[in-house]
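Throughout our pipeline, every protein is held as a single compact record rather than as scattered files. Nothing more is needed to write down the fold, since each code stands for a local backbone conformation. The record that follows is passed on verbatim for readers who wish to inspect the format.
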Amino acid sequence: MTKAIIGYQNLIDNAVTITASAQTLTGPARQAWDGITTTYWEIPTAGTHTLTCIFGSPVVADYFGIFSHNLATAGALIRLQYSRDSGSTWRNAFDDLQLADNFCGLKTFPIMATTHWRVLITVATAPLFIGVLQFGERLIPYRGMPVDFVVPADNRQTEILPNRTESGAFAGRSVIPRGSEAEIMINHVPVDWVRQAWRPFVRWSEKRPFFFSWNHTDFPEECVFAMAKPGIPAPQLSDFHTYNLRMPIVCLGGL
């Protein structure tokens, strides 16, 4: 069974009503799911806060992702909850997510379908900023990454500029992070899976970034928030009448 997962759906886009317990004029809650990593939902005070999403009919979810935030700096805890009785009682989809850094966070949980969902956040040191927040139904690649797959954390695109004095002496280096790159690779995939699962993902990735975890079972901390590079290769038919799939990606932020 593959250990990789992709999180690209964002159910928040489809909610009938969305209610935030706190926000600011310059940091409205909607900026957490607009797909842009340079805009932020700002929570100006410490304490417990919620983002409640109500849908017209039950929606299915089994993953939660967060990126472009300062949860670690703010000492914040975050969890996703759901209600089966129109918000009278709330159950946890997973225990509190506490991140050690302000990078990517990705949680999976048993699949659930309901109309009422909410994000519960406990902030220790305000303000809290969240640029990317999404949950939905994860995409499980038909196969895991092959043996020649390069882990994003090992493919840092770093610009290193040596500094020298006028006399030629070494004066340190300037290290400029440029993120990292990788390539999602799925070999020997049946055509039905390409039509049902891969094509919708490709259409999404042409417009917006997504979460990718190459081995979420063993290395969940190596998940990334990434965008497809221009010119996504078309599926290639293999000798076994299956398809080999490729998607070069640029990982946003540092690793």
Q: What stands out?
A: The radius of gyration is 20 Å. The chain has two domains: 5-136, 152-251. The chain has two helices and 14 strands.
